[in-house]
Amino acid sequence: MNNNNGLEQLLLELETILPQFYNQGGDDSKLRLYQSKSDAQENVLYFLRHSQSQFVIHFSLSILESKINKRWVNLSAQEQNDLKTIVFDLYLRHNALVNYNVTKVAQLIADIGRYEFQTNSQNYINEVMSLVNNPQTSLRGILLLKEISTEFTTSKGVISQNTKNTLRKLLLERVPTIIQVLTTSLNQLLDQTSPHPDTNNYETKVNSIFETLLSYFSWIPLNEFLTPTLLETLFRYLELSNISSLKCLNEILSKNCVPREFQEFLFRVFNEINKLTNHIVKNTAMVSQLGYEFINKFTLLISLFVSNHLRRVENNPNFSIQTFLANLFQYTLLQSTTLTDSYKICMDIWKTFLDYLLTNVNEQGVASPAKYTDGLIQLQSELVKRILFAFNKDFLDQLQDGDEDDDQPADDEEIDFNSCSTYIDYSINIISKITELYPKEGLKSLAWLFTQSMELAQLIPQAKANNSLSSLTSNVKDITTILKLFARLTHLFVPNFGETYDYAIYVYNGLLQMCQVCEIHKVYNVGSDFIKLHDQILCTIRSFSYWLGDYGNEVRVKPAGQADYDRIIAETINIIVPLFNGSVPQTISISAGRLLNSLAVVAKPSCLFNQTEVVITNIHNICLSLPTPVQSIIYSAISSTILTPPSNVNLNHQWDIRRPKYSPFVKGITSQYLEIPQIQGFIDSKLYLDGQVIQRIQKTLNIVTSIMKTVPDVTMAKGILHDAIQDILPVTLRLFVVYINVPSVLSSILDFFFTLFECLKTQVGVNFTQQTISTFLEILGGDNLKQLLTSSNDIGNSIVQKLIEILTFSIQTYGHSFETLLTPIISFAMEKIYPVIIDSTSPIKPLLFSLLYTILDNHWRYFFPTSTIASSNNNNNSANGQSQQQQTSYQQLASILTAFQKTFQQNDVNLFKQNLEYFEKLNMKHKLYEKIIQEPGFSKSLIFDFFKSLTSGCQSINSEDIINTTYHFASIDFPKFYHQYFVEYLSTSELTVDQKNIIKTNFSNEKDHPTFNRNMNQFINDFSYYTFLIKN
Question: Lower CB density within 10 Å: C or N end of the chain?
Fold first, then answer.
């Protein structure tokens, strides 16, 4: 009695504490204290019998879960029966349980079942099936089947691997029975008289069955277990618009399953899709009737069918693909009226289909299939209407007017159709694919768009005269969209230059006229939409660069067209140069500069250098009032114009004329920069900190850096550039020392030198590179570096990042001629950077280890030189010197490898993966593991670290790679791995002797890779399982 009173009091206390904890969170110390009591697991049986609190029940079930998973086999038969009785009673007779507790109890029953199932799986499944077949317990039986699937195939380390394998094998044997019973239940529910007397119960039961099937579908080999009866049942429920059946079908298709009667299965899926899409497009009200979720899942079904099975049915006469596409076309248009996920999926379906056709055309050399021409050109036309305000204003007005982005979204990037620019860009992507597939028909279909754009552009002068330009906003947006579309199509003019010349020259001349109108009337002053228009015109003209290059090649063969070609080049220059003006918006000036640069480096017209002579001569006056970003683009374009020779090798490259032009061009940029160190009081009076001085330095460095990045890959051009900037190199190196404590300037200097070494490495030479890097290491080797690394300012990390990139590039580029700097570079990395960042989350860590990998990869022989000490030709002094060098290089190698090992002891999964890959590359190329295994202490600790990362689960995402690396290491000396490393690691663990022996017995000394991996996975699971038992 007294004991019951104590339990009753404790129950009352829990009923007070638990609601507060589960609803509000907070301190759980009292709960953990209670769970740790020796009689806690016995007391919960009392609570489960006497409490109606769902929180108490859930808490009690959690304690029982621990008992079942850790102590079940140690319980007496009576204790096991008592526990089973109360859990089963709770599950079957406690009607007031909330859903999460019902699921929890089912999980516990399944956990208990893991022990009983191994002895008699047939009886166990029969007992569960009796619950499913009993109307009173059917729902609970179905849920229990689901939890059996989950718990018997768990990846958690709560059962041994052998038990997992046995359970999976035995459960697979019972899967046909389970699927048969669930299928029968579904069919019985279908055959009940309609309407169902209890709709809610009916739907709950149907959905529970499908959720259970989904659970089994996630792990069983579907090809072996899908039956025609089940598939037929799924399709019957699909006809009833059941979402859960759709989920099952999607799971089947997503696994690219090939069931028995595969052709019939595909044909049925195909017909069901056709039938349902046809019903939906003929009765548009069905979209709202079926609901958002169903439509999305159904569209996903179409997507999975097209992605996984299109190639199997596209040319099969039994499948009417054209009917399918016609229905999909109407279905897509229906979805396009709303901002749903379904429309995005539809667009992805068309992209997949078009990519499939384009791959066949491009890789197999077949013609574009004529049977799709009319339908796809119609789709092209409809998509065009949906991206123009003239046809779709209400819809487009709903979208957010996001920032423009020149870059197309990556294939795996999430598409946000709520952004107007993204929606338009994605649609243009589909339109351009159709046009690429059918260029003649596609371009013809789109011709009216450009004509309309020109007509709309002609309204601008009159609208400006009437002071009503703002009334053209929608028209301007449409012109911008049309021009963006044509920018994606200009590559189609290149392969068939002669056939498309009239079309292309019409568009190009029209673009020049539109640009001229915009510049004359200064439409960019009206607002952002007009700025975007002018900018897009320039971008679309720029997209013609390759076509202009082909045009230039054509007129060299047929000189009669040279005058016309030279004229349009001149007209292009004439629309560019006026935009190099301080009153013009920066984005437009930058686009104009990029256009000039593309003319120089892509089109390469032979007349360009002569036609821009006046611009080149006056460029410094032109750029005087422009902001630095604009100047950088323009100066780079002029540099390219001077240094890029015509593409035709037979033409005179005019280096004797270009070189004299280039030197004064660069001097006009750098002259004031060269004078900076001579400023009176520059150092003593700290004038180097003056804002205008700093601005002048950064401006010059940014411009010259941009120029170097655009230098043509032509030896003569690089030599001219190097000669022109040679006098600023020592000045910049001196300024590095001066501005060591000014991060913004330091960043610009390092960016300059990195670009210099990258673009002009041959011209700069090894000696100057070594001198520069020696200065960097010397100046940054003290407290300056530590301040940069530990500052909260991102620019500090940026500076160190650029320095590491310079070091990495130099080591990769200059090879053995750079070995004199290896020791100071290694010391800098290992003594100055590594200690500061290794225990932090610094973004520099991956770059540092990339540098260390590059050192090892490119200078492996530095660490393992060929020994010549024994040579009789060597005297003792040289032998001693060589021995000392070997000792130094050995110590450096040891410190580098130890640094790598340190990252294998940390939880940074990305750095772990990167460095593991570096180890694998070094092993493949230089046999790293053979060297490591010769160092017993290091090799053992490294393997121990791999074992720890695997058994702790902290690197579970990298486990497969870690196991593969471990195998490659072990394969150097299997006996040492099995009989020394593996055994010693187990001996250091807290496992019992019996547990260690079981693990050793299960880990056979096999040498083939698949068996080794399988053994390692079993070892990881069992080690985690036994640790779980010991620690709990």
Answer: N
